[in-house]
Amino acid sequence: MDDFEAQLKELIARGFSFAHPRDATGEVAAVVGVRVHHGVVDVVQIYGEHDADATRIPGDEMDIFFPYKVFWRSSGTSAAVVAELLALPDPEPGDVPKVNGCWVPARPGRSKWLSASA
Q: What range does the domain containing 84 cover?
């Protein structure tokens, strides 16, 4: 198992849910991992081996892909971005609002609800 595969397994172990948004022709546009926890939403968007970005935003943001407020952001190679995301500490209770989950686009015109983990 390579390092990036191990990182993806760690994202899954931490409760990330994944969606595979598609473009108008049905091709996968990205692999998107979302974890709603401790009042924040962590989002990683993987476009290819050398192109990814990730954010940590408040759980009450209306649009997780174009948030108004961002606590943390990174972009670069997929392995580097995921490593930085995995290194983030969980927020302390009371630092951020409690949330139940968020909507994530799945394909044109369709979204999926991702519930919050503890």
A: 3-116
